[in-house]
Specification:
The protein has 82 residues and is mainly α. The chain has a domain at 29-80. The chain is 45% helix and 0% strand. The chain contains two helices and no strands. Helix 1 (29-49) packs antiparallel against helix 2 (62-77). The protein is elongated, with a radius of gyration of 28 Å. The termini are far apart. 7% of the residues are buried. Residues 1-10 have a biased composition (Basic residues). It is a multi-pass membrane protein. Keywords: Cell cycle, Cell division, Cell membrane, Membrane, Transmembrane, Transmembrane helix. The chain crosses the membrane at residues 28-50, 62-81.
Length: 82
């Protein structure tokens, strides 16, 4: 019975190495992150001090939601910080 020819496999070539340099933050990340958190904190404090009349009059307790949204957005940016 005839024997089949062995298959020639191409030589293994490893994938190209990634540049594993240190990751850097964009310059805008930290100031925007801290700014959003501080803005949210100030918004919440002003809302409590003014009995929900300010910073936007007429929406009462929604001012707290806006303040917390700023704080949450700031914390969301911390996930991009290296």
């Amino acid at each position: 019975m005839p024997e089949s020819r062995p298959r020639k496999k191409p030589a293994y070539t490893p994938p190209p190495a990634k540049a594993s340099g240190p990751k850097t933050n964009p310059r805008w990340l930290v100031p925007v992150m801290l700014g959003l958190m501080l803005l949210g904190l100030v918004w919440i404090v002003v809302t409590y001090i003014s009995s929900s009349q300010y910073p936007i009059p007429g929406i009462s307790q929604w001012n707290l939601a806006i303040g917390f949204a700023f704080v949450i957005a700031g914390f969301g940016l911390t996930t991009r910080w290296h």
